[in-house]
Specification:
The protein has 268 residues and is α/β, with parallel strands linked by helices. Helix content is 38%, strand content 19%.
Length: 268
């Protein structure tokens, strides 16, 4: 296949898009380094009169942290433009398990988001949430596994296996959940991309129907699958972890509608 052979039909859909939902890690920056042309791309979206939303599965930071990071890198961003898999998970827990305490395997920043949302954190809970935890300890893993073996529900903010950085890839939420699953035999229910709750939250926050939105990202099994499985246009950029071979082998459920070398190559 020709990697960048985008069809006129999908390019027309892109030109009519009202909302651009951008992944962050691997799509507009790597670590502390903006991807070439990404800042200009975001500014062009806003100048064109369309909406811009940043969505990341990386729940190790809270939304305010992301606003500060994006602004410090030069990206246009305000608080209402940021959504994380942590936000989606919190919304689900508040809707279906109101008042229930949670045992959280996550960073202090994610803990802060849960507490601010009114969720009590406890190591004596029948709900376990595992996320991308840069402060992970064996004690945390042990406690999570013990609770799950004793019947606690097992949730995870997002399924990403690796997190891209400027120095390579590091274990993400999916890898940590893999250890818990191997120990307990229990699979988690994941949130974030590519799951339906994410698209529902995007529609609610933006006021724009998914038919008029595009998901832009660098991963087939999260970013592209979100669009393909939930009625959004999907755009893959090759600035992150996906290779041409991976695209060629992808299932229809993870085959992007559009492919660009990077966001800098996208014409609005």
């Amino acid at each position: 296949m020709t990697l960048y052979n985008n069809t006129p039909e999908n390019l027309k859909k892109l030109s009519e898009t009202k909302l651009f939902v951008l992944d962050m890690d691997g799509t507009i920056y790597l670590g502390k380094n903006p991807i070439d042309g990404a800042i200009d791309f975001c500014e062009r979206i806003i100048k064109s009169g369309r909406k811009l939303m940043y969505f990341t599965n990386n729940a190790s930071r809270n939304p305010n942290d992301y606003v500060k990071k994006l602004n410090s890198l030069g990206f246009p961003c305000e608080r209402d433009m940021i959504v994380t898999s942590g936000d989606v998970t919190i919304a689900y827990l508040k809707k279906y398990y109101p008042g229930k305490p949670v045992y959280l395997v996550g960073t202090p920043a994610l803990e802060e988001s849960f507490v601010q949302a009114g969720i009590t954190l406890s190591d004596k809970s029948d709900i376990v949430v595992v996320s991308f935890d840069l402060t992970l300890t064996y004690e945390k893993l042990e406690k999570a596994c013990t609770l799950i073996r004793n019947g606690a529900k097992f949730f995870s903010t997002h399924p990403d296996i690796n997190c891209p950085t400027e120095d390579g890839y590091i274990p993400d939420s999916g890898a940590i959940c893999g250890a818990v699953t191997l120990s307990t035999g229990v699979e988690p229910r994941y949130f974030g991309k590519p799951y339906a709750e994410t698209v529902e939250m995007i529609e609610t926050l933006s006021g724009i129907d998914r038919k008029h939105a595009v998901m832009v990202g660098d991963r087939l099994y999260t970013d592209i699958a979100l669009g393909k499985k939930n009625g959004m246009l999907s755009m893959l950029v090759m600035s992150g972890e996906t290779t041409q071979e991976m695209v060629e082998k992808a299932s229809d459920a993870e085959k992007p509608d559009l492919i660009f070398e990077s966001v800098a190559k996208v014409e609005l």
